[in-house]
Design a protein that fits this description.
Blueprint lengths: L5 H6 L1 H26 L6 H15 L1 H10 L4 H30 L9 H4 L3 H49 L2 H16 L3 H20 L5 E3 H19 L3 E7 L1 H4 L2 E3 L4 H13 L5 E10 L2 E8 L10 H4 L1 H15 L4 E6 L4 E8 L25
Parallel strand pairs: 2-4
Antiparallel strand pairs: 1-3, 4-5, 5-7, 6-7
Helix pairs in contact: 2-3, 3-5, 4-5, 5-7, 7-14, 8-9, 8-10, 9-10, 10-12
């Protein structure tokens, strides 16, 4: 039989479990055997030890599947479940050990009471409790490592997303158009309006540079940041840009990853407003329902082209947002893009978090993802 490698033990949980499970019961048999030699037990006692080790290996196997069911439950449920599982397994194991003792050591022995028949169950329970502590210890350690890996991936992805946002969304073309619009205002002696535009632009640039990419902000703060961005875009589009908000009051206090909506909004401005002479409408919706924060960015532009493959037509900006949410929330989030006839609709559903409980929550379950800039 080929021995498992270190890499297999590190990455394959089944290989790790069965290797440790076999090694543990083998170690139990060896220590019992040397103990029997120390106390000068008869040679036939080795058979009892062998039966005990093999039976322990077999009877404790179901404990793994029971504990998988218990994992994630409340501490009280886990403790009661572990104690009950260990004691019931210990009773079954003692029956086998005592019967083998009768078979190989004392054929004439007869249990006078049921208690004698299950004798030694308490000490065996302690042994199985040690097995359980080792199992949960390893499982907790693996869970912590996965959470740390997920957090590192989320940090890297969010930081790259922020840098890509500055590179692609706040590109020289955007700055050129904005500054050109401000210059036009100055030439038209609209100095007050131009000064207001410069202030808004600087505030948004400061926000994007100072914002911690891993910090979650309330949806209200996210909307305020969008307003800074939109105030500069309105210099370019004027009345061609029409914006609607339909956000429930409770949703405004929910937490979202910072700069989550900006690339989606920029995407809509590019295709639904900038590309059409008559401009377009962008609508942002938000509500809370059944423990989720549901968000939608809707425009009345041309939507998605049906003749382009799905992976390509969703573009860099939409893929980036999807991947960032996947890293942060795993399977607990939902992200869909579809044509709304007319226009494009981007729907998101995130676990509902508020500022009061945010510090108590930890990001879990990450999927490998590669960050990219924002643009369809």
């Amino acid at each position: 039989m080929k021995m498992p490698t270190i890499e297999q033990l590190r990455t394959n949980r089944n290989v790790l479990f069965w290797s440790l499970h076999a090694a543990g019961w083998a170690a139990y048999g060896i220590t019992q055997y040397f103990g029997a030699l120390l106390y000068e037990k008869p040679s036939s006692y080795a058979r009892v030890i062998a039966v005990a080790a093999v039976s322990g290996f077999v009877l404790s196997m179901p404990m793994r599947f029971i504990y998988q069911r218990l994992w994630g439950r409340s501490p009280r449920t886990m403790i009661v479940g572990v104690l009950a599982t260990c004691y019931i397994t210990a009773l079954a194991l003692r029956i086998v050990i005592n019967l083998s003792y009768k078979q190989f050591i004392e054929p004439d022995w007869q249990a006078q009471t049921l208690f004698e028949f299950f004798g030694g169950a308490l000490s065996t329970t302690y042994l199985l409790l040690c097995w359980s502590v080792l199992y949960f210890g390893i499982k907790f350690y693996e869970s912590q490592r996965k959470q740390e890996a997920a957090m590192l991936k989320a940090v890297a992805l969010a930081q790259e997303a922020q840098l890509k946002m500055l590179r692609y969304q706040l590109n020289p073309h955007f700055l050129f158009n904005t500054l050109n619009a401000i210059s036009t205002l100055i030439l038209d002696n609209q100095n007050r309006t131009a000064n207001h535009a410069v202030t808004r632009l600087s505030e948004f640039l400061r926000y994007t540079l100072d914002q911690d990419p891993m910090k979650k902000v309330t949806l209200r703060q996210e909307i305020e940041a969008l307003d800074l961005y939109l105030n500069t875009e309105r210099l370019r589009f004027g009345e061609r840009l029409r914006l609607e908000y339909a956000i429930d009051a409770p949703a405004l206090e929910a937490l979202v990853p910072s700069l989550l909506l900006q690339p989606l909004l920029e995407n809509s401005l590019k295709y639904a407003v900038s590309a059409r002479e008559q401009g377009g409408l962008v609508r942002i919706e938000g509500r809370t329902r059944e423990g989720l924060l549901e968000l939608a960015v809707i425009d009345d532009g041309p939507g998605l082209r049906e003749d382009v493959p799905d992976g390509a037509r969703r573009g860099v900006g939409l893929r980036n947002t999807r991947e960032r949410l996947t890293v942060l929330y795993g399977e607990r989030c939902r992200f869909t893009v579809l044509n709304s006839h007319p226009g494009l609709r981007v729907d998101m559903a995130l676990p509902l978090e508020t500022a009061e409980v945010a510090d108590e929550q930890v990001a879990v379950r990450a999927a490998p993802a590669r960050a990219a800039g924002a643009r369809r």
